[in-house]
Prior knowledge:
Elements: E1 2-7, H1 10-18, E2 27-31, E3 83-87, H2 89-92, H3 102-108, E4 113-115, H4 119-136, E5 139-144, E6 147-151, H5 161-176, E7 180-185, H6 188-198, E8 203-205, H7 211-215, H8 228-236, H9 242-247, H10 249-253, H11 257-266, E9 282-292, H12 295-316, E10 319-329, E11 334-340, H13 347-361, E12 369-380, H14 392-412
Parallel strand pairs: 2-4, 7-8
Antiparallel strand pairs: 1-6, 1-7, 2-3, 5-6, 9-12, 10-11, 10-12
This protein binds magnesium ion.
Amino acid sequence: MKIHIDIDCFFASAARIVDPSLEHKPMAIGGRSDTKIFNKEAKNQTVNFENSGSFVPTFYKTYEAKDDDIDAFKDKDGKIRGILTTSSYEARAFGIKTAMTIREALQLCPHLIIKAPNMSLYQELSHKLHDFLSTRIPLIEQASIDEFYGDLSGWVEDEDIPAFIDNLRHEIKKELLLPVSIGAAKTRYIAKLATTYAKPFGCKTIETHDFDSFINPIKVENFAGIGKSMKARLNAVQIHTLGSLRERRGTVESWGPYAKELYKRVSGLTDAPIVTTHKRKSIGISRTFDPLFDRNELKRRVHVLARHLSFAIMKLDVIPTVFHLSIAYDMNQKSHKNISLAEIFTEKKFDSLCMELFNTADTQKRLQVIRLSINCSSFTRDSKKELSLIGFDEEQKMHTLTKSVQTLRQRYGIDALKFASEM
Ligand SMILES: [Mg+2]
């Protein structure tokens, strides 16, 4: 399944991170110039941030918190200028909308708090969310400053997706203090539509069996890609809902290639792959569990983590050369071990490597373990030059095997094939 992640009223939520007293109050972000990034048409802009490495939580102590920035929107003669770029849900309850003038908004809600935009803060938060998502999902595509698509196929079983995205939503809130909504569906277009109905701070998964009942009653203008003119055209032939659009395939398709594509998107008949624009520097997996003493069970869990991580590495098509395993024990003790190895990646070898790392890292054998993490970094290209030539032919064969295993898992799920050591 594909997922779509969207930050709820992003700029307002960002302002609340800086100044938590804005929480639960009607508030909005004003803008005077440079507003093109705020409107819907700007969503095609690429937001391309270099990945600065691993995710680090930040405290925004450097930003000054003020109650209201309305003065910033007054011109010389004290007249309020500017429009709203984002408003909180509390403000929306007063009928306040994006692109409304600040003056108009203040008439609807006189106690509305107006904050000035802070682009560098938005970029920083967007970047951090991207990094965070990359640590949780192998394929992440950034669609705009506050929107991401992810591909969960083969990574999370369909039946586990509602729990996975719900957990992800709470993790993001906890780690980054950002409220997001997440939609999941077979295609990215339907996932995005699902997000709209998950807001605010919610999750929605569209299963195959509830596809029709979800899609059909929705008004055409609520589907991304149906603008004012397309809406007018559809309404003119008595098409008001996505259900009626789906029933009128011939009519819609006769309008040309754009309408044809639209028909397919609405019906879940077309999809586009998730494209990572991001230079990933590392990938890892970790799990926290109830204190566990049994070393055999711990080793089995290392095999399971290794298999999942191997799947992600193959999906990313990278060759990591630095491997890191860390163990968290109860009594607040920690231990970790690194290995550097410039060889072709194969799952079997990776699995043995993880086992070796675990055996050497497990220095506190009297303690119970509460968390296992494996991380892989320093990716290299698949070139003979950079990699060790010792046993190259054998490795090439194993690499081919790992690739075949990958193909099967992408088709049948990550649990379709396991090494015997894990059983
Ligand atoms: Mg948003």
